[in-house]
Amino acid sequence: MKNSVNNETYDFIGSLSIALYSQGITITLDALKQILNDRGGNYSESSNLGLGKSVSTAYKAWKEVDPVIHHAIAYTFKGRNGNFPWDK
Questions:
Q1: Which residues contact 10 (CB under 8 A, 6 or more apart)?
Q2: Which residues are within 8 A (CB) of 30 and not within 5 positions of it... i.e. 6 or more apart?
Q3: Could you tell me the CA-to-CA distances from 51 to 3, 24, 38, 41 in Å, in that order?
Q4: 16-71: pLDDT as tens digits
Q5: CA–CA separation, 60 vs 70, rounded Å?
Q6: Where in 23-88 does DSSP place strands (E)?
Q7: DSSP string covering 45-61
Q8: What band does 74 get if pLDDT is binned at 50, 70 and 90?
Q9: pTM higher than 0.90 for the full model?
Q10: Please, which residues have CB within 8 angstroms of residue 15's CB and are 6 or more apart in sequence?
């Protein structure tokens, strides 16, 4: 990837989010967790707390590097209920 935040997980989250966003696809954090675990991650099966922190950190890290990817992260990953984190 041309632009990078120099963290393998955050770079992957950014790359995945822009690919999905460009096709109008959203996925749950559970689906993202499975993808990351398949890539060798170690995210707990019962909680999305650690994953949520990783997505949040990736979102913040991409803000200055590439605002489009920053935006894509916000609109790609949803919670178990299918809502975005800021939805009530």
A1: 54, 57, 58, 61, 62
A2: 48, 80
A3: 22, 22, 14, 10
A4: 999 999 999 999 998 999 999 999 888 776 666 678 888 999 999 999 999 999 99
A5: 7
A6: 27-28, 77-78
A7: SS--HHHHHHHHHHHHH
A8: very high
A9: no
A10: 1
